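Hey, can you fold this one?
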Amino acid sequence: MVCNVKKKQAGIGSRIVKLVVSRVQDNHRILCYDFGEETQSLSLVPISDLHVGGEEFDEKALVEFLQTAERENYYLILNGDLFDCAICGSRGNVYEATMSPQEALDYCVNLFYPYRDRILCINTGNHSQRINRAVGIDVDKSFSTLLGLKDVYSDTATFLHLQLGKDRHGRRFNYVFYITHGWGNGRTIGGRISAGSQLLMYANANCYILSHTHIKNVNSTVFNEYDIRTKRLYKKNQFIVHSGCFTKSARYSIRSGLRSSSSGAPVISVSGKRRMIKVFMEAFEEEI
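Sure. Predicted structure:
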């Protein structure tokens, strides 16, 4: 189902954003945003794996990092596991939780409500699916609905199409992102990164964003594309971005021997002046 065209103001000093298409096809959410011909650049900030309600949630780091989203033309992607959702039988201990699932939901709604007009898409994660499987309630969908963003929510994955700027011939710049929470949680960094490369065989995009592994990382690869009109090969750069986390060491991860990760998220910049994607690994200063 295609929703009506919408316009939303993306915060103080940001341009009007037009949501051109929002529909579900083959169990994927498809979103297309038009940022206007005058937009010369914009930045995407994928945020995931907060585990709100769990003892490991790094609230201080998240609140500080969200100040990044207050810059002009910065937009958020919420990519799952915002809530810890520990239940009986899960790896997390319900008796070590700092909030109930309802309290965690209320917290996240209050936290992200001021940023709701900067949120381009919301995906589910494996933690909230615990509750979904147990009692049939989709916490991430409830969160999206309470923010007024039900039309940008996916319980699987999202194709995100961005249009901005134009070249000297008046042609728009288009970027396609494939975004999903992800899977796999190997003990080595290489094992965690390898999960992202599997997306190259599943969907064709300029950039792939996945989470779940709690690491911040970017890989680039080149795809050779044959143009039947010009009879020539063109090289297409593709990026695989892991979005990081906002957690400290949890008891269950220490018991399992899982490596801890530093809190934070990358920033993905796209240009409206020429075809270009840049990925920045932003990190906080740490006390030694």
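The first helix runs from residue 59 to 65. Let me know if you want another pass with a different chain boundary.
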